[in-house]
Design goal:
The chain has about 450 residues and is mainly β. The protein has four domains: about 100 residues, Roll (Mac-2 Binding Protein); about 100 residues, Mac-2 Binding Protein; about 100 residues, Mac-2 Binding Protein (Roll), CATH 3.10.250.10; about 100 residues, Mac-2 Binding Protein. About 10% of the residues lie in helices and about 35% in strands. It has four helices and 29 strands. The strands form seven sheets. Strands 8, 9, 10, 11, 12 and 15 form a six-stranded mixed beta sheet that branches. Strands 16, 17, 18, 19, 20 and 21 form a six-stranded mixed beta sheet that branches. Strands 22, 23, 24, 25, 26 and 29 form a six-stranded mixed beta sheet that branches.
Length: about 450
């Protein structure tokens, strides 16, 4: 038992800085052990924005609020802030004191976050109180006020942030124009289906019943007016939404979709990437994101021609394992010292549009072809010797030895391609062959075609 009296004034940063009474000892037993409950406290806040989820980033360190320099401030950093504040997904990482200059200490962030940290103060190695910046370069964040709870980030039960609480959306208070804005804000494609009837479950959230009245062209849902009239949701008819998945990167100006100038979609606008520091690890992320195989070359100097519009990313710090280029660290989002003469480009190996699976070697197996980003099996009745010539050549597998039906290599789980493929036999890839657009073969028995080529036996 510690029995000396602690005599804090209350403004000390640590208890050991408080004086104690060296002589007087209180009469205590363990029945008098002290307990204390402190309120949980966030070490980061957003100031000067339209809501608690958008504004200038300020960090609490040793009792003092300070700002963050926008040098190396990027989307993974913004993701950490949004998560720490329970503010949904990051919409933008901004610099240049977009939400006004702060005052006092600048807690300069010298390393980028990976995006998975639980708090901004856990990101990398932070050099506290090094004044490389002034307050005209204070960093800011815009987080989303909405989220979809379901199977993916682009489909699920819609929840909206009301002050400090996530609330489910009443289906009666939501329409197609509102869905357009939600899908855009979440960096998804266009709305595919607006669902009620608790399609994604009811959840535990309270119900938001005010009607949202978007025009459909707003960038965020909080910019839409709302009606003070409250809809009746007696049956807890929660709103569900399917948005199309959307690629946030594309390759432009090359000979195929897997080669070209790198362009990134951010807040509805396509922009380029500066070639400073552009390397094979960065290229690997782009190729993986586009399902384009392995990186062949990472190019600069506007190899595929200069782009236009914003230059979104500068000095990327990809490890090569990221799922999307926007998750890579960078020296700044939209902050750069580049021109479009330094636009970055990529050449990826590209995925071949056909493959043989379940065979004893690489050049035999059940044939599947790539159609609309999905692998489909081919009906044996829709495939002949000329088609086999093309597939074996495309796969570097020599000449066809045998074309097999009757599910020789198993049925698999893929859907069935039943249109007739009409190759001449001299095409370099199956995708260059014409297909019969109207006649479809009957493959009720899932009679998938199998193929044995001469190579690599």
């Amino acid at each position: 038992m510690w029995t000396q009296e602690i005599q804090c004034r209350g403004n000390e940063s640590q208890i050991h800085l408080c004086p104690t009474s060296p002589s007087h000892k209180n009469n205590c037993s363990h029945e008098d052990d002290l307990s204390l409950v402190c309120a949980d406290k966030k070490n980061v806040r957003l100031v000067g924005g339209p809501s608690r989820c958008a504004g200038r980033v300020e960090v609490l360190h040793r009792g003092q609020w300070g700002t963050v320099c926008d040098f190396y401030w990027d989307m993974p950093d913004a993701a950490v802030v949004c998560r720490e504040l329970d503010c949904g997904e990051p919409v933008d990482a901004v610099g240049g004191a977009k939400f006004g200059p702060g005052s006092g200490t600048i807690w300069t962030n010298r390393k980028t976050c990976t995006g998975s940290e639980s708090t901004l103060k856990n990101c990398g190695s932070v050099d506290w109180a090094i004044y490389d910046c002034d307050h005209t370069k204070d960093a800011g964040v815009i987080c989303s006020d909405i989220r979809l709870i379901g199977n993916s980030s682009c489909s699920g039960r819609l929840e909206i942030l009301d002050d400090q609480t996530w609330m489910s959306m009443c289906a009666a208070a939501f329409d197609q124009q509102d869905a357009e804005v939600v899908c855009r804000e979440l960096d998804c494609g266009a709305p595919v289906q607006v669902l009620g009837e608790d399609a994604f479950g009811k959840g535990d959230a309270q119900m938001w019943t005010q009607e949202i009245q978007c025009r459909g062209n707003e960038s965020q849902i909080h910019l839409c007016p709302i009606s003070l009239h409250k809809k009746s949701c007696l049956h807890e008819n929660y709103q569900g939404l399917f948005c199309a998945d959307k690629k946030n990167v594309r390759l432009v100006g090359g000979h195929s979709r897997c080669a070209g100038r790198v362009e990134v979609l951010h807040r509805g606008q396509w922009g380029t990437v500066c070639d400073v520091g552009w390397d094979s690890a960065d290229a690997a992320v782009v190729c993986r994101e586009l399902d384009c195989g392995e990186p062949v070359d990472a190019l600069g100097d506007a190899h595929f021609g200069p782009g236009s519009g914003p230059i979104w990313m500068y000095v990327l710090l990809c490890t090569g394992s990221e799922s999307t280029l926007k998750n890579c660290g960078a020296t700044g989002w939209g902050l750069h010292a580049c021109t479009h003469n330094s636009d970055a480009g990529v050449i990826c190996s590209g995925h071949k549009p056909s493959r043989l699976i379940n065979g004893p070697h690489l050049c035999s197996g059940r044939l599947e072809i790539l159609h609309n980003q999905s692998w489909v099996s081919v009906c044996a009745a829709a495939f002949d010797q000329q088609d086999a010539e093309v597939v074996c050549r495309e796969l570097d597998c020599g000449a066809p030895v045998q074309v097999l039906g009757e599910d020789a290599f198993g049925k698999g789980d893929a859907q069935m391609w039943t249109q007739e493929i009409q190759c001449r036999g001299d095409e370099p890839q199956i995708s260059f062959c014409s297909v019969s657009s109207s006649h479809k073969h009957s493959c009720t028995s899932d009679n998938s075609v199998g193929l044995i080529c001469s190579g690599k036996l």
